[in-house]
Amino acid sequence: MRTLRLVVALAVLGLLSGRAVAGTPAVKSGGNFEVKAVRDIDYHGGKDADPVRHRLDLFLPAEQKDYPVLVFVHGGAWTKGSRGGFEKLARLLARNGVGTAITNYRLSPQVQHPAHTQDVAKAVAWVHGNIARYGGRPDQLFLSGHSAGGHLVALLGTDPTYLEAAGVPLKDIKGVIPISGVYTFRPGSMPKVFGDDKEAYRKAAPLTHVKGQHPPFLILVADSDLKGFDKMAEQFCDALGKSGCTAKVINVKDRNHGTIVGQMTNLGDPGTQAVLAFIARHSSLKLHESEAAKGGKS
Question: Checking phi first, is residue 227 left (phi over 0); if not, alpha (psi -120 to 50) or beta?
């Protein structure tokens, strides 16, 4: 009994100190860099640029060079939402050596598909064309988004026409990370966003365009996500795999449609750890056991 108590006490002390406990994965970090913010960048240009929706913010690992860059797209059913709610996530990624752009795009009913996707493609093009002067690598871009944003980045990753039109080589997209995204639609389900044409819904679905030659995909879904999202993620992943694309689904436990991304502001969150590992696998990012996991300062 005394031995059992000692083991439990040691385990508790390990948890309280931030040390990795046997049987649990160590928390990995890409660093602990200072973060530089560059805000309110007009990625569209021209007289018809929307002063709010055609804007992005950069969060960068200060005084670093040759780091990978992630473009993150907010959700909100294509009708609401803003980049501003994801600054904390962007700062965490930048602190870990991943330059991060968070972008707005025009919303419905002001516009309909494919305008949302075209806007995001232009944001990616701005990052691709300008990130080198901030120290980032334009040939190591990753696309990620939550919910409607997950749909938009998945569509960019499967239908090459959007990035081609914006002047972004698909070879420079090293990975796509949709989080609780939408990959197929029931025709007529969202007329304010996609109109009434069945063909528009078909073309808007990332699943329609899976034919191979796509970037690697990491697909995150919550175990208590919206109804059908888990099956949709598996269907999308299976199609990507059968086409010869590297793809994986991670079902994040104890999360719902909102908390799956909300909890990713914590370095030790399983979603965050999966994203960092995925980026490191497909870029120059190097991960190591975090100081907090070693019992050092966070």
Answer: beta
The CATH homologous superfamily for domain 26-289 is: Alpha/Beta hydrolase fold, catalytic domain (3.40.50.1820)
Rounded to 5 degrees, φ, ψ at 76 are: 130, 30
As given in the structure block, the two tokens for residue 153 are 């980045």
Tokens read off for 221: 């879904």
**DSSP one-letter string for 127-158:** HHHHGGGGTEEEEEEEEEEETHHHHHHHHHHH
CA angle 189, 192, 198 (to 5 degrees): 50
Specify which residues 145 forms β-bridges with. 73, 178
Whether 22 has a pLDDT exceeding 50, the answer reads no
Going 253 to 258 to 264 to 266, the CA torsion angle's sign is: negative
CA distances from residue 238 to 67, 100, 199, 231 in whole angstroms, order as listed = 31, 29, 23, 10
User: Is residue 20 helix, strand or coil?
Assistant: coil
Residue whose tokens read 């795999």: 241
Vertex 113 angle, CA 107 and 114, to 5°: 110
Token pair belonging to 27: 């928390």
Asked if residues 117 and 82 have their Cβ atoms less than 8 Å apart, the reply is: no
* pLDDT exceeds cutoff 90 at 17: no
Q: What phi, psi does 274 have (nearest 5°)?
A: -65, -40
Residue spans per domain, the chain: 26-289
Q: How far apart are CA 120 and CA 56, in angstroms?
A: 10
Cis check: omega of the bond before 178, within 30 degrees of 0? no
274 forms beta bridges with none
8 Å CB contact between 68 and 99: yes
Q: What is the mean pLDDT of residues 205-227?
A: 97
Whole-structure pTM over 0.70, yes or no? yes
